[in-house]
């Protein structure tokens, strides 16, 4: 039996064989067009009666009776001499009398193309007793071949329809697919209709991407790119701070040496950091609450260089602070012999009793200083929080801060001093206050003397100053 045949069709093939065994030599298989009559007839002649002489003839409107006679006899006898004047039955009997043919199985596909004379001849051969001849004819309607047994071929059931399609199609829609269900129900179990299934045509057409959709995706990508660029631009400073610089500039001192304050050396004796940038009015306007340096002294005064060790330098400075202001503001010794004489005088003045006398003077504040400090604090605290100030000096020694104010009172207006605590250490800050806006503070900074600008003064908000004064009062 053929490899692909449904169980109901296989059962019908067995039934046809059984009817032939019962003595019914002429059988007509009835079925509508497309139900698979020809396929079933081919399965029958292929799988059944392998010892018979077989002939399968597909009839058409152009098939003549003489041609059909020749085809049937040639498949039943070896090299038959056919008499064209005799009928099919007479030729068969004559040839059999000359040479036995053996049992024969004839399958004729298309009963509507048989003539009445040929049907009569087939009836005669089915009834003759000379040789066994089984004749199977396919027809679309019953009673097309008189005296033949009509066996009806029924349409496939729903389950057999799906099974048939699975034999020929590797991929089928799911059973719940409404389009597939409608196709099965409308096919009415006809194999010809079922095998004409075209999956590509039955599926709903998927709309392709439109030009508007592509443009929308491009616009979205461009928007995201612009957003990333804006974020990188806004946070450029924060991102740069995350990456440490390889070549960092070494830190420099932020305190103006006391010798420079009292000796009164000109700005030409001081090495300024990045002098060309500081000279321009637009540079270094960034507001910063951190400690900023005022001037950078790379070369120590010559009088201090002559003193040998660190303790001697400290003692020399303390001794210089104890001298009267008039004496300290004298002329600077220009030749080397005068400097050596002064260094020796400083060495002689450094003794234990003098250091004992200097220590209380440096730590104890007079009532005048206290009143002046309170006045400065009250003046700064009374100003509005929106005001701005310019920080000019930050030192740990109040004597240096007072000397700075005394020296620059005539040149700079509104100088104020206040104290603060940082890491349990008292610092004295000198500011120029009283600016209501940042622009006015910038204008005042541009008018500062060159030696003051060398110290890189910076802006400070009034709220920060009040906070530092509060830390000092604790």
UniProtKB/TrEMBL annotation:
Q: Which Gene3D superfamilies match?
A: P-loop containing nucleotide triphosphate hydrolases (3.40.50.300), Sporulation related repeat (3.30.70.1070)
One Pfam family, short name please? AAA_22
GO molecular function terms listed in the Swiss-Prot or TrEMBL record: ATP hydrolysis activity; peptidoglycan binding
Q: Determine the domain of life of the protein's source.
A: Bacteria
List the transmembrane segments: none
All residue ranges annotated as the SPOR domain in the record:
382-462
Q: Which InterPro entries match?
A: AAA_22, P-loop_NTPase, SPOR-like_dom, SPOR-like_sf
Name of the molecule in the record: DamX protein
